[in-house]
Amino acid sequence: GAGILVSQHFGAKNRKALSETIGNCIMLTAVVGMLIMLAGFLLARPMLRLLSTPPEIIDWAADYLHVLFLGGAGFVFYNMFAGILIFSALLNIVLDIWFVAGFGWGVRGVALATVLAQAISAVLTFLKIRSMRQVFDLNVNTLKPVPGVPSSILKLGMPTGITQAVFSIAMLLVQRLQNSFGAEFIAINVILMRVDGFAMMPNFSFGQALTTFIGQNVGARKYDRLHQGAKQGTMMAVGVAAALTASILLFGRPLMSMFTQTEHLIDLGMRFMRILALGYIAMAVIQSLSGVQRGAGDTVTPMWLSIFTSVFLRVTSAYLIAWFTRSPEYPNGRPESVYFSMLLTWSTGALLNVLAFRYGRWR
After folding, report:
1. Exposure letters 176-197 (e unless 16+ CB within 10 A, then b)
2. Burial class (CB in 10 A: 0-12, 13-18, 19+), 355
3. Which of 25, 55, 235, 300 is 20–30 Å from 250 (CA)?
4. Mean pLDDT, 10 residues at a time, over the chain (363 residues)?
5. How far apart are CA 106 and CA 69, in angstroms?
């Protein structure tokens, strides 16, 4: 919500409104961050039980989440400031290896690495923002609530927030299915999600960049640049996603071997990764065109599209594919069902976002 307003005020060269938006967003983020930290810490273990987490890993999972939520301030401010995603991801991996392999801290070390990487990134981005005095002001006065500013941030941000919340709920529902496949599958999935982070990072970055680009040009009333920028940005995102997908398929085994030396797990991981591969290109289209719509102020359409694909389509297809693939060897269905549902979700989401871009209310 703040990102949209910031880009539009910046494009309109409205220093006062820009300063008030940034200051008010920092205060809102501080309040929400504290609530997330407290609620997450208290509810972590009950939620793990609700998700049928295997008993042999529930203590590890609880330890991981407790550290993650207690360090949640870095996470929420890091997401608000954004800006240096690649630095945070690389730092996270370095700290993971150092804390786990070097110090032997196990799951808590992985959580601590994530918290520290995000906190350091948040501090660095804040220092960068503080140095931009030629663009806006950041002081005690701009941190004070200004009538209309928090409500505008929430009005634009709530649809995206609801989207992320619904997406997380859908992930929890699918996680329950994943947990039924046993601890080995959970271990493979954790490794896959680490590699997945490499492929997804540029997609999210292009989405944020297009939101900013569209917002600035709307603010400056340079409407002739919107469609050209949206198309070129999306094509760039697709090109990068295709290159990364090819790299992951070619070098996926060495990447996974950073997290496990078990050949059986690496073989299974590569089998699942081949299913996901094309989905990263579809996700590039989703993130880019959703970013365009949000930058123009239409945050509602991407919300409904995401709810339909992430909840209805993904959850339903995952459980249906699992049910139809049951066998004596796989009494709960084949684990591939989770990844086929993701591929179906991303492909459908890309098609719907293309239609929304061509005919949607963002125009």
Report:
1. ebbbebeeebbbbbebbebbbe
2. exposed
3. 235
4. 76 81 81 85 89 84 85 70 51 66 71 77 74 72 77 79 80 83 81 78 85 85 88 93 89 82 84 87 94 88 89 91 91 89 93 94 86
5. 17
Give me the amino acid identity at 357: F
CA distance 322 to 108: 32
Contact indicator for 137, 26 with CB cutoff of 8 Å: no
> Strand, coil or helix: what is 87?
helix
CB atoms within 10 A of CB 154: 13
Instruction: Decide: 238 and 285 in contact? Cβ < 8 Å.
Output: yes
Distances (CA, A) of 167 to 204, 306, 310: 15, 7, 6
CA dist., res. 110 & res. 95, Å (int)? 8
Distance CA 257, CA 135 (A): 46
Give one DSSP letter per residue of 238-293, joined into a string.
Answer: HHHHHHHHHHHHHHHHHHHHTT---HHHHHHHHHHHHHHTTHHHHHHHHHHHHHHH
Tell me the two tokens of residue 187. 């271990």
Amino acid type, 174: V
pTM: 0.67
3-state secondary structure of 127: helix
The letter for the amino acid at 335 is P
Distance, CA of 342 to CA of 324 (rounded, Å): 17
The rounded distance, in Å, linking the Cα atoms of 51 and 178 is 10
* Contact call for residues 286 and 349 (beta carbons, < 8 A): yes
Residue located via tokens 């469609």? 227
Handedness of CA 65, 68, 73, 77 (dihedral sign): negative
